[in-house]
Amino acid sequence: MSTLDVNHIDAAHGQLKAVHGVSLNVAPGEMLFLLGANGAGKTTLLRSIAGDHRAYSGDVSLAGADISALPAHLRARAGLALVPEGRRLFPQMSVRENLTLGAATARDGPWSVDAVYDAFPNLARLDRSPAGKLSGGEQQAVAIGRALMGNPKAILLDEVSLGLSPAAVDLAYAALAKLREMGLALLVVEQDLSRALRTADALIVMCEGHVTLRAKPAETSLDALAAASFGHIEGEAA
Ligand SMILES: Nc1ncnc2c1ncn2[C@@H]1O[C@H](COP(=O)(O)OP(=O)(O)OP(=O)(O)O)[C@@H](O)[C@H]1O
């Protein structure tokens, strides 16, 4: 059974339809990448799954339970975490305080501040530092750590590498690989097609709100991912 099942989500911003009937599922220990150019609808889809944006139709299930009717905080309590674009930390609050906010779901599980520091050793020495003083990579680690503090079953990550140095991106993905080994379901929005192709268990490409490609890495190529990002649907005559 999948951890996350998303069935035929439609979402809009006013008159603009941003997501057209998108379905996907993510198994335990699977990393599914969601790709597409700016404006493809990736963030709107992630926010709709998390309950931060109201989809006007479609269903979301987590570990077999339908959570479509729940508001965002109850989806989080059910075990669905979102690491949003821009990370949305509280810059004046310390690393520890930001992490502790993630425990508001009150779900039981293995994650604590110390467990996050084991997973991201560079954060431990920053325990009392204001999050706003951290580098982009350190802030991304705090944002992922805050999601883990809620002991989620599935994590949605928006634009993991945005604004990070190559070394910081490597560190973030090393941490995600460990979470995958622990059996978490990971849905990752990424602009770097090559990184996605190297890292993914499965890939979905969107263009203008539609899915244009679904593939396993071994079945596709950078060129096919790029073409799908600009709307070419595999199998269709050019
Ligand atoms: N708050 C909003 N109000 C109106 N339109 C919006 C809003 N947010 C997004 N859109 C529009 O919805 C469409 C999908 O945007 P979305 O941010 O979901 O795409 P994206 O693939 O995540 O792109 P990006 O990589 O730029 O974040 C775009 O046409 C965008 O302009």
UniProtKB/TrEMBL annotation:
Pfam families in the record: ABC_tran
Please name the taxonomic classification of the source: Bacteria, Pseudomonadati, Pseudomonadota, Alphaproteobacteria, Hyphomicrobiales
Q: Name one GO molecular function term.
A: ATP binding
Instruction: Give the protein's recorded name.
Output: ABC transporter ATP-binding protein
Q: What's the family? A: Belongs to the ABC transporter superfamily.
Q: Which InterPro entries match?
A: AAA+_ATPase (IPR003593), ABC_transporter-like_ATP-bd (IPR003439), ABC_transporter-like_CS (IPR017871), BCAA_Transport_ATP-bd_LivF (IPR052156), P-loop_NTPase (IPR027417)
SUPFAM superfamilies referenced in this protein's UniProt entry, alphabetically: P-loop containing nucleoside triphosphate hydrolases (SSF52540)
Domain ABC transporter, residue spans: 4-233
What species is given as this protein's source?
Roseibium sediminicola
Q: Which UniProt keywords apply?
A: Amino-acid transport, ATP-binding, Nucleotide-binding, Transport
CDD domains linked: ABC_TM1139_LivF_branched
Q: Carries keyword Transport?
A: yes
Origin: domain of life:
Bacteria
Reply yes or no: does the keyword Membrane apply. no
